[in-house]
Amino acid sequence: MNIGLIAHDSKKKLMQNFCIAYRGILSKHELYATGTTGRLIEEATNLNVHKYLAGHLGGEQQMGSQIEHNEIDLVIFLREPLKPKGHEPDVNNVVRLCDIHNIPLATNLATAELLIKALERGDLDWREIFKA
Fold first, then answer.
1. How many CB atoms lie within 10 A of CB 115?
2. Is residue 2 part of a domain?
3. Domain boundaries, position 34
4. 62 inside domain
5. Which of 121, 124, 34 is nearest to 78 (CA)?
6. 19 in Cβ contact with 43 (< 8 Å)
7. What is the pTM of this model?
8. Taking phi first (over 0 means left), then psi (-120 to 50 degrees means alpha), and beta for anything else, what does residue 77 get?
9. Which value, in Å, is the radius of gyration of the alpha carbons in the chain?
């Protein structure tokens, strides 16, 4: 499955720690991330990550395009809800596209852990049928 990973600056360390903790599960899937987040995940975990541009330079739009084309199966987007970003429309677009295209989305650690464990159990295998 293709997993999208995005983290705002204040959540990048949390994303690294999440990926370290679930490295075994993540290593069985294709990972896509915005530029800096992807680089930090690779450095912390040695996982291979397909990197887009940095989020504010269009990386969130690139991921949005893959979501629109049904090429992403799960998105973990650790965002900072208390500090709006200058590129907030792009941020909201990823969330909106996941809703439109029925892509499971986690925006906080608790939901990310639920989704990654569901992925491991096979609860998201329906995505393979949905994509076909």
1. 19
2. yes
3. 1-75+112-117
4. yes
5. 34
6. no
7. 0.91
8. beta
9. 13
